Amino acid sequence: MNADDEREFREFVAARSRSLLHTAYLLTGDWEQGRDLLQGALASTARRWPKLRDRQQPENYVRRAIYHAHVDRFRLLSWGREMLTATLPDQPSAQVTDWADTVVQRQDIMAALRRLPKRQRAVIVLRYFEDRPDNEIAAILGVAQGTVRSQTHKALASLRATLTEAGPSAASPSTASQGRGVIA
Fold it and tell me: Tens digits of per-residue pLDDT, 112-152?
């Protein structure tokens, strides 16, 4: 990589790494795993930086690398490690303060998001947490726009069902406004 390419790459990382880390966190549900995922995607991007055809949109390339690395990591490292249960963990009592209730609601949303299949989770993160249109989501994930729409529909139905089962703390109207429309 020559000096100009390195400077461009460093500027890109400085400007966009926070947003990319947020995406990686939402995909993994864990800050440390998100950092690892982002670091791997950026290392991969750095190796290919001089060859990127569209220098105006490197962020889409990195997001695609994050998504594919996440799917690969799931396939290789965590297959069969999760244990599904028929019952949800105990819910907090109604005496919880507003801030604690907000934390519980966000945890419920994140737990429901983690239960989604990888592609559905990626579609929800890109659409509702990053406000991306269908065509960009389709380009990032390498699927058709119709697939994006159907995956969104299935994911939202699953989230609604999961949050309804979780009880009133997860499905309250304030959750929808704080979760930027995830269950709406």
Answer: 898 999 999 999 999 998 989 999 999 999 999 999 999 99
What pLDDT, on a 0 to 100 scale, did the predictor assign at position 139? 92
Please give the mean pLDDT across all residues of the chain: 80
What is d(CA 44, CA 64) in angstroms, rounded to the nearest whole number?
Answer: 11
Can you say how many angstroms the Cα of residue 146 is from the centroid of all Cα atoms in its chain? 20
CA 48/CA 5 separation, integer angstroms = 11
Two structure tokens written together for 143: 């699927």
pLDDT of 168: 57
8 Å CB contact between 168 and 114: no
